[in-house]
Amino acid sequence: MRMECAIIGGGPAGLSAALVLGRARRKVVLFDDKQPRNAVTAHTHGFLTRDGVKPEELRRLARQDIRKYPSVELESRRVTGIMPIRGGFRLQADDGKVYEARKLLLATGLKERLPDLRGLQGMYGKSLFSCPYCDGWELRDKPLVVIADGDQAFTLSRLIYQWSRDLVVCTNGSASRLAPEELRLLHRKGIPVVNQRITELAGEKGQLRTVRFADGSSVKRAGGFVSPYWRHATQFAEQLGCRLSASGGIETDSLGRTSVSGVYAAGDASVISPAQAAIAAGEGSRAAIGINTDLVREDFG
Ligand SMILES: Cc1cc2nc3c(=O)[nH]c(=O)nc-3n(C[C@H](O)[C@H](O)[C@H](O)COP(=O)(O)OP(=O)(O)OC[C@H]3O[C@@H](n4cnc5c(N)ncnc54)[C@H](O)[C@@H]3O)c2cc1C
User: Fold this and answer.
1) Helix, strand, or coil here: 159?
2) Does any ligand 1 atom lie closer than 6 A to the CB of residue 45?
3) Are residues 212 and 266 in the same domain?
4) What are the backbone angles phi and psi of residue 293, rounded to the nearest 5°?
5) Probe ligand 1: pick from 38, 82, 126, max atoms within 8 Å of CB?
6) Ligand 1: which of 104, 131, 270, 272 to mutate, judged by most atoms within 8 Å of the beta carbon?
């Protein structure tokens, strides 16, 4: 099937691109295997007119908008392979179906890897989060824990202090330590730093109650923030030879073009940080305009 654009990823970035390209009368296929990064959380905050919406509801509303534009196909499938061909790309979906497209948009997002802490998986997205812009308001003024390696702990704690002044910083026995000046600043704000290894995040139904340490001590907390590690959700950018930026995101120009002709990127996969649904949607819109601009130039002469 020959399309003008194939979009991989049906999160805010890919869906926003599909909407703009549909309205530009482009023949588009959008693939999504429904494994978004924020699946663990119940609410998306800070998205204009949709503050607090369920992540799946935001995507459902977007798909509903897109269905008004008949040139866009929505495929609930995983793309398993991409091959550059003359004038475009050949994509293979997990049902074996093959598509060809002149342009390719990578809106595949990121995957998180959380620190290996007992109890964390069940609490992440419920009472422990990674981004205060997303979930800080809901945790405001509560007794919070900040879990991060020594080299990130200060920056994250300083930020979280804007939402709550009752903080305990835990480096979980990480080899990297806070610098003396950072410790002094935290001490001045009355923020204790615990370097002990965490043995358990205890609570019930996703609600953190107690942080327990290897030396037998513990501290009561009502929630907090953790600094996760991340990786790209797919290897497509590297396989296609797209240059990555210093932060590890797919490098793009101001219209979402990557270093590989015909390949565009949008959303968390290119921005990395700050990771926000509104930013991803904006990026998707921008890349769609880049794609349409290039198609117009190629076809109009
Ligand atoms: C716990 C948590 C809470 C958050 N809370 C908020 C919040 O309150 N407010 C906010 O603005 N942001 C929040 N975010 C961030 C927000 O979720 C992301 O910034 C946003 O979803 C990025 O959109 P995206 O379209 O780039 O990627 P995603 O939303 O991750 O979408 C990428 C999509 O691509 C699909 N995909 C990947 N590979 C393939 C493939 N090979 N084939 C087919 N499909 C594929 C995935 O299944 C996924 O659906 C939160 C994130 C987390 C982890």
Assistant:
1) helix
2) yes
3) no
4) -55, -45
5) 38
6) 131
Assess whether 284 and 200 both reside in one domain.
no
**pLDDT at residue 176 tops 80:** no
Looking at the fold, whether 166 and 219 belong to one and the same domain comes out as yes
Q: How far, in Å, from the CA of 35 to the mean position of ligand 1?
A: 8
Find the 78 Cα to ligand 1 centroid distance in Å.
15
268-283 burial, b if ≥16 CB within 10 A, otherwise e?
A: bbbbbeebbbebbbbb
Q: Is 26 exposed, middle or buried (0-12, 13-18, 19+ CB in 10 A)?
A: buried
- Could you report the per-residue pLDDT of 11-68, keeping only the tens digit for each? 999 999 999 999 999 999 999 999 998 989 999 999 999 999 999 999 999 999 999 9
Cβ(267) – ligand 1 distance below 6 Å: yes
Q: Which helix (H) or strand (E) holds 284?
A: helix 277-300
Q: How many CA atoms lie within 13 A of 221 on its CB side?
A: 28
pLDDT tens, position by position, 158-174: 999 999 999 999 999 98
**Domain total in the chain:** 2
125 and 31 within one domain:
no
> Would you say 136 and 160 are in contact if contact means Cβ atoms under 8 Å apart?
yes
Q: Is residue 119 in contact with ligand 1, taking CB distance under 6 Å?
A: no
Beta-carbon neighbour count of residue 94 at 10 Å? 13
Ligand 1 atom at shortest distance from the alpha carbon of 31: 43
Q: How far is the CA of 32 from the centre of ligand 1 (A)?
A: 11
SS3 assignment, position 11: coil
38, 60: one domain: yes
Distance CA 226, CA 156 (A): 9
- For residue 241, the domain's CATH number is 3.50.50.60
Atom number in ligand 1 closest to CA 277 = 11
Domain that holds residue 200: 115-226
Q: Are 5 and 97 in contact (CB under 8 A)?
A: no
